[in-house]
Each structure stands twice: as structure tokens, then as C-alpha cells.
Amino acid sequence: MEIISEEINHQIDKAKKGKQGAFKFLLDYYWNEVYGFQLKRVRNEHEAEDITIETFAKAFDKIETFDENYTFSTWLITISKNIQIDKTRKKNASIYSNTTDTSNEQVQKIPDHSPTPEDKLIREQNLAELLRYIKQLKPHYQEVINLRYFQEMSYNEISETLEEPLNNVKVRLLRARKLLAEIITRKD
């Protein structure tokens, strides 16, 4: 337990320095916990997934404010809970507003390092086979994969096309690549 705690703290420190691998580690390690929490609350897979993506986007954007005296999972769950409450309030009030609009804030950029192992795998795969794998993803993951790798859009262009905050696009693409890599690994 102590080793895991030390590794998590190490990854948080790396994330605060903008290391992409640390963000991926934290996303992979805590995804199921945050998603499961939201699924119990909203009882809708798509909505739970969207809130989870927003949670990680917001957490990664504010990672430098995390206080190590607290548990990282508790911090994530609190962010997730607040996002869900805001969405519910806005839905109930019939007001459409983007809850993660950070235009007035300084956004910590998650570096766009290329190529990652997933990028290499995508380029090296047989296109027809790769398309079959991609079709196994949920539609919103298929869309970001298509925009990023087949239409070769930047994160900013994808953000504008989907009319979503940049951090949401980054987290959704990170999650899509992880799921696609799992599908490809299972098939091989």
C-alpha cells in the first residue's frame, strides 16, 4: 500500500511539471473509480463518461493546486461530484452552459508529444484492420480518433470542430487511444 501511495505521489509531482506520461498514469489508475462513482449517481453510461472526462480535464488543468495532505482520489471525486451537481442544476433550470469554460483562466497545457506508442501503432497497422478496431469504440471516441489521425487536425482544431474545451478533447483522445490499444492488444 505504501509503495503504491509513493508511486502515486511521484506521478502527481511529475504531472505538476507537465509530464504527459504522469497524466496518462493518473487517468488509467483512477478512471474506473471516478467513472463508477458517476455511473451510480447518474445511471447513464454516456453522461457518466462525459462527466468523468470533464473531471480529469479539470483536475489536470488545476493539478498544481492539489494539496498532498489529502488523498488524490478524494480530490477527483469531489471535482466529479461538483461537475455533476452543476450539470444537474443547469439541466433542471433548462440553461445550457459549458461548465468547464476556462477562457478567463490560465490553462495548464498538457503537452502534445508525438509520436507515442499508440501513434506508431496506428500508423503501422493495416488500415482496413485498424478501421475494424476503431468501429468497436463508442461513436464519440471514433470521432476524435478520426479527426486526429485521419483528418490530421490539431487539438485546437478538434476543440473548435466539436465545440468542446481543449482539455476535454485531450482527455477524450487519451482515453480513446487507451481503449483502442486495449482492443488491438486483445486481438493480437
Automatic annotation (TrEMBL):
The cross-references to InterPro entries, in alphabetical order and at most eight, read: RNA_pol_sigma-70-like, RNA_pol_sigma-70_dom, RNA_pol_sigma70_r2, RNA_pol_sigma70_r4_t2, RNA_pol_sigma_r2, RNA_pol_sigma_r3/r4-like, WH-like_DNA-bd_sf
**UniProt entry tagged with the keyword Lyase:** no
Instruction: Enumerate the residue ranges of region (Disordered).
Output: 97-118
Q: Where is the composition biased (Polar residues)?
A: 97-107
Which molecular function GO terms apply here?
A: DNA binding; sigma factor activity
Q: Which Pfam families match?
A: Sigma70_r2, Sigma70_r4_2
The alphabetical list of record keywords is: Sigma factor, Transcription, Transcription regulation
Q: Which Gene3D superfamilies match?
A: 1.10.1740.10, Winged helix-like DNA-binding domain superfamily/Winged helix DNA-binding domain
Output the SUPFAM superfamilies linked to this UniProt entry.
Sigma2 domain of RNA polymerase sigma factors, Sigma3 and sigma4 domains of RNA polymerase sigma factors
Which residues are in the RNA polymerase sigma-70 region domain? Answer: 29-92
Q: Taxonomically, which superkingdom?
A: Bacteria
**CDD domains under this entry?**
Sigma70_r4
Residues in RNA polymerase sigma factor 70 region 4 type domain copies: 128-180
- Family recorded in the similarity comment: Belongs to the sigma-70 factor family. ECF subfamily.
Name the chain's protein.
Answer: Sigma-70 family RNA polymerase sigma factor
Q: Could you tell me which species this protein originates from? A: Aequorivita lipolytica
Q: What is the lineage of its organism?
A: Bacteria, Pseudomonadati, Bacteroidota, Flavobacteriia, Flavobacteriales
